[in-house]
Write a structure and sequence with these properties.
mainly alpha; 159 residues; 4 helices; elongated
Length: 159
């Protein structure tokens, strides 16, 4: 039990650090990077705002996952993870991954039809497969959590 509390505490520290880094990327780095790219390559300057919007929304999806993970960790700490309330936070994670996946597929298709070099489309394809696996894994984990919640509810009814 002590190891679990330490792991939860360490995970929370890293979630805070990750969230802070993402805020910096979202507000400073990504808009500045795409502005610089527009200045360096004026023929692709029209992509500045769409790329900025998509990248900021991707970061927002990750931030949603971090907040939901934080809430689930709180439920683990309070021994309430096997409850219907935890499914709402897992649902939010699944929806955030689905939104990121949809944007990623859109970018993949756009880049795939416009690219001269296969490198970037292949990288985007790999990322799409990775996000697909992550999303499907979360759906399976949600089903397992639902089963465990039902079993715990049944056991508490018997006791």
């Amino acid at each position: 039990m002590v190891k679990e509390h330490r792991a939860v505490a360490a995970l929370r520290v890293f979630l805070v650090v990750l969230f802070g880094i993402l805020v910096v990327f979202q507000t400073l780095s990504l808009p500045g990077q795409f502005a610089h790219m527009a200045e360096e390559s004026p023929d692709h300057a029209y992509l500045r705002w769409p790329m900025t919007a998509v990248s900021v929304l991707w970061v927002l999806c990750v931030q949603v996952v971090i907040v939901c993970t934080w809430k689930l960790l709180t439920m683990v700490k309070n021994d309430r993870i096997f409850s219907e309330a935890s499914l709402a936070w897992v649902d939010a994670i699944v929806w955030a991954i689905a939104a990121a996946w949809a944007m990623l597929v859109g970018v993949f298709l756009y880049v795939g039809f416009k690219a001269d070099d296969p490198g970037l489309p292949l990288l985007l394809f790999l990322m799409t497969i990775g996000v697909t696996v992550l999303g499907l894994l979360m759906v399976v984990m949600r089903a397992l959590l639902r089963q465990a919640t039902a079993l715990r509810t049944d056991m508490e009814a018997v006791i």
